[in-house]
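Intended use. Records like the one below are meant for learning the mapping from a protein sequence to its folded structure. Do not use them to infer anything beyond what is encoded.
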Amino acid sequence: MLANLTQEGLAAAAGISSDTVWRIETGTRSARLDHLIQIADALRADLADLVSRR
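Structure written out for the chain above:
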């Protein structure tokens, strides 16, 4: 899944803070379901694709 977005761009598109995106990406914080849904929507991806272990 490639969207060619920076963390800041993804955060803006998802309506969440760039700090939240960074924490999720680095594993500093577990992602909340509502944040995952917002990120999936911003990426135009299925939520299952974000959480799949494949």
